[in-house]
Write a structure and sequence with these properties.
Shape of chain A: globular
Distance between the termini of chain B: 38 Å
Mean pLDDT of chain B: 87
Helix content of chain B: 55-70%
CATH class of the largest domain in chain A: Alpha Beta
Largest interface: A-B, 45 and 34 residues
Strand order of the largest sheet of chain B: 1-4
CATH superfamily of the largest domain in chain A: P-loop containing nucleotide triphosphate hydrolases
Number of domains of chain A: 3
Number of strands of chain A: 20
CATH class of one domain in chain B: Mainly Alpha
Oligomer: heterodimer
CATH architecture of one domain in chain B: Orthogonal Bundle
Structural class of chain B: mainly alpha
Amino acid sequence: MSDKAARYAIECKNITKRFGTVIANDSIHLGVKHGEILALLGENGSGKTTLMNMISGIYHPDEGELLIHGEKVNIHSPVDSMELGIGMIHQHFKLVEAFRAMDNIVLGTKSKKLKDDLLEKEIMQLCNQYGLTIDLRKRVSDMSVSEKQTVEIIKVLYRGATILILDEPTAVLTPQETSQLFDILRKMKEKGCAIVIITHKLQEVLEISDRVTILRKGKSIQSVETKDSTAASLTELMVGRKVELHIERPEPKNCKTILKVVDLTVEGTDQNIVIDDISFSIKSGEILGIAGVAGSGQKELCETIAGLMKAKEGAILYNKENILGKTPSEIIHMGISMSFVPEDRLGMGLVASMGMTDNMLLKTYNDGKGPFVDRKPAKKLANKLVEKLSIVTAGVEKPVRLMSGGNVQKVLLGREIESGPNLLITAYPVRGLDINSSHTVYNLLNEQKSNHVAVVYIGEDLDVLLELSDRIMVLCHGKITGILDAKTTTKEEIGLLMTGEGAKEESDE
Amino acid sequence: MNNKDKTIKDPLLRIGKRSELTSKQTFQIRILAVCLSIVAGGIFIAMIGYNPFAIYATILSGAFRSEMAVQATVKMMIPLLIASLGVTLAFKMKFWNIGAEGQIIFGATCASFFALYFSNLNHIVLILLMMMAGVIGGGLWGLIPALFKVKFGTNETLFTLMLNYIALHIVAYLRDGPWMDPHAQGYSKIARFDPNAALDKLLGVQAGWLIGLILVIVLTIYLKYTKQGYEINVVGESKDTARYAGMKVNRIILRTMFLSGGVAGLCGMIQASGSDITLTTNVAGGVGFTAIIVAWLAQLNPVGILIVSFLFSVLEKGSSVIQSTYGLSTDSADVLQGIILFFILACEFFVRYRLIIRKKEGSKDGI
């Protein structure tokens, strides 16, 4: 054991991986010991996930050595990696929804299928060791996100994994669930597991990890002890220079209610209620933040306001006129702009195969007379945005799918702002952006706020929501569980409301 | 861990994604594919006991050796060109219209109605009327699956495919029943059109080639510079985005499928009144399917389609000549065509991916 502890559980030497001409990982060094939690920190596109995918056998490195438990290995498939005792917990869970927890746990293992009782006993024993609690007979489809994550963790432990890799595990969790997860991870650490946690949330890195390895642009920059680090020092390493982490919040001025949602109920595609009797209002010159666990009705709310989804009951009054039942193009021309950035970034709002110019045309192509599209103003606008927002692109006619995430977001948000909206709805506008680009986005939103635009900001990062918004509305299962003053509320309060606990009578205005 | 005995090597071959190639590199790969296909075809010819060089020379000379040969090649190209342009409209929208065959047949059927029963009209009026009938007939045949897709979410691939057979059997019914030629002594066929209903000839070939060329230009402009063309592109990329931009997606799908079917229907009219001068069950003769390959090979570019459909016709015409000159069976000619096509289609894989071969040293090259 003493011999083992001295060696690294995982050691990467000069790992390089290329995708075409893009170098995703450039001779990376990294080491994790047993009984240690290593945080892998880096901005999006810095190569964190690529590196972990190589360790878990999804990709194969082009160059470099990989040592597991001190021995050089060549991992070709997730099966190889599992045999080496490596377990990866992906951002998107890989569970069979129709199966029970225990079926998912044994799925794919080669051992003979045990009777339910015996199996349950065996797994429970494992759970008790690590302090995990779960109902093993519950179907995955009936589980909450954090329960599913627990199943994933048990799944890899059951296969004898002693090295655990978690890819952004907290992205889908409430603050309370996050601290539960961290308790579990600490317990695993005590048992001698080596844990790698991929994240870009600084607070969590400081809270949970022992050491931090920072990646930047595919290179491993440095490994530091967490106890010697601060949020500022880590950011500096991550970005490469000092960054102002503070977000401005100008006082809202001349607020006038511009949009009022009254008793809105919306049904989803399979007749389930996705928005449940909600009422709130949005004022010009303020930023209304919307918090909630992913899938709490944010997307549906956006789509209903934009006219893409039909409401079952209620009304949406825009300057006292009900916009329910209007077509998307009528709503666009009333000055309501919605930019929804889905997980894949390009799903809605931009056409991936088209260049910036053609994407500028998306909402205005039909404005001119005659059968032909007038591309001149669009091209001008595209060039203007490139300059104004310092968008990096090989040319305004090059397909936007070739651009990096940050630049794509700038194109989308830039176009929406240039259309001069009265109401700007942005969902996850900083998803996948580096710190600098994120701050550009915050500044753009604040600029709109001071121009008396009503801004709705749907976000994931509670810290940002607290700093940027004037009011925060919390959604849970399609219901409003609270509308809070961002200046006085706390992260914990929002966290409780996100889970639906501690909800008080909703108040508006 | 028990993996000491397992010194796993890199796999000998693996597939890696290429970075975006320049158009010059892409062009080089395609040329290489054409060369390889000729070599592979040559090996096949040699294996069945012929001289590959002679056969290839005959294919080329067969397509071009005389004015008549060239005219015959062009005549083969006309339906292929127009049908490919038709399916391109739908494919740009990612609507998998594999029913060009049926749209050609139904367009031809509608046009034939006027050719058979209104043959005493003024020639120009009659031809225009037949063209309109062809467009509307083909258009309706394209509109039906689109309508069901929009209303009920049916699968357009199966739907358009099935409509092919329906159109085919409508013609068979007309041939054996109402439209049967009474002067054919009981032999069931549809009467030859009155010369008045035949498409005029230009430079010795039926005028369809001119219509095809005009369509190439019109479609290039339509797809690239008009609002409707822009809409087709956006809907093809993502219906959600199109809805988000305020487009009336269903209307765009219906309109585009009408146009796609309409162009195919026009193709049917041209084939019936220009080449066959009658309506047979063979009016489309598989062109509607070959058109799909042509459209994709040309990357849905109308000018590209012009080139590819011409090359296809050369191959087709050349094969028919080697059949008659060398007594090579139809099947062997088909195999040869298949080999050549296989290489050309397979090269698209290498445009996007490369094979990485294991080497001792670090440098790795793909094909």
